[in-house]
Each structure stands twice: as structure tokens, then as C-alpha cells.
Amino acid sequence: MKASISDQRSIIDLQNFDFHTANLKNKAANLPELAEINSLSIKQNNARDLRIAAETELNDVKRELARAEGDVEQIVTRIERDEKRLASGTGTPKELEQTQHELVTLGTRRAELEEIELEVMMRVDEIKARITDLTGQEEQLGQELMDAQVRKENALTVLNSELEKAEKERATTAQSVNAEFLALYEKIRQGNNGIGAAFLAGNQCKGCNLTLNTIELQRIAGLAEDEVVRCEECRCILVRDK
Fold first, then answer.
1. Across-strand partners of 238?
2. How far apart are CA 229 and CA 235, in angstroms?
3. Tens of pLDDT along 157-174?
4. Alpha-carbon distance 19 to 6, whole Å?
5. Please, are residues 172 and 165 in contact by the beta-carbon 8 Å criterion?
6. Can you tell me the distance from the alpha carbon of 154 to that of 151, in angstroms, rounded to the nearest whole number?
7. What is the pLDDT of residues 142-159, one digit of tens each?
8. CA separation (Å) from 191 to 1, 128, 205, 207, 239?
9. Which of 16, 75, 83, 237 falls between 20 and 30 A from 91, CA-CA?
10. How far, in Å, CA of 196 to CA of 198, rounded?
């Protein structure tokens, strides 16, 4: 195949556009904000899950507290009833003595139940404090997440603008290249990790960075300038750097 010197130079320009485009797309796919957003999302979801679990736990403990308060209330009611009976003197001496003993037992039981009630109340306070802390973490992470998303969108806007510009310039350059030569470049590029053309700088292919042997260099030197040269190793189009 033959291609004018101009087309060969243009194909190098297209390769540079393609490298630049690939680099921009790679940057867009690997923005640091993306990893940050992922990390913040995981942390926020963890804080949310822990908060929900704590709220469920709080509801359970509140029911436990209600039972403890009910138990104390029942004991207080019985104590008040027995105290009234003793104060009235109603009943036989034996019955009054039994009431006195019952008051002692009820007092002990009341102290035990009030201790349980206090313990449950402390658990309620601890869980509420935990919920408040987790809610604060969740809100803070949400704010950081929004900030990261804004920075991501701003970065993507810049990259997309550069990408659009590069694609327009590439399209303009491609229009001036012989269609058959351009098709060859595209075919090679698609099957060669994005490299379809490179300079032959001295005795080195800049596509695969390997050195051509003397015999191959002599063969190339004897070819016409418009003869399309291919690297024996990577098969990309070699444009002689003159």
C-alpha cells in the first residue's frame, strides 16, 4: 500500500489524538472522587444501618423499661395499701404482724426493681446517645458525599470538554486521510491495544520500542517515501521520522 507523506503524518496525528482520548477516558473512569464517593457511600450506609439497628434496640429497651416501671408501680401500690392497713390498725395482731413482714419484703423487692429500672433507663440513655452520634456521622458523611459528587461532576465537565474538542479535531484530521489507509490504521489499532501507527526513530519502532535489525532497516531505506511500512514485531504502521 502507498500513502502520501501528508497522510502518513496525519495518521501519526490521529494516533496522538487517540492516545489523548484514551488518556482522558481513563482519567474519567479513575477519578479519585469516584473512589472517595464509593468509600463515603459505604461509610454512610454503615452508619445508617447501625442507626437503624440502634433505633430497633431502643424500642425493645423502651418496652423493657415500661415493664420495669409497671413492676415498680405494682409494688408501690401494694406498699401503700399495707401502710394504710397498718395505720388504721384494722385486723388481728397476727394479721398486722404479717402485714409488717410483708412490708419489709415489699421494700426489699421495690429496691431490687428500682435498681433494674435504673439500669434499663441508663441503657435507654446510652442507646439514645449512640443514635445521636450515628445520626451526626450519617449527616456529616452525606455532606462529604455531596461535596465529592460536585467535585466529580466538575472534573467530568472539564474532561468531557477536552474529549469533545479532541474528537472534533480528530474527525477533521481523519477527513483528509485516504480512506483505505485510514481503514488500515483503524484495523491495526483495534487489534493492537490502541496502537496503529508510530514513528520509526532511528532504528527503533516507537510503537513497541523494539530495535529493528540492520537488514530490515536497509530494506526500508530502499523503499519509496510513499510506501507504507509496517513494524515486523507489533505490525503497526511505521512512519519514517525525516
1. 198, 229
2. 9
3. 999 999 999 999 999 999
4. 20
5. no
6. 5
7. 999 999 999 999 999 999
8. 19, 61, 17, 13, 19
9. 75
10. 7
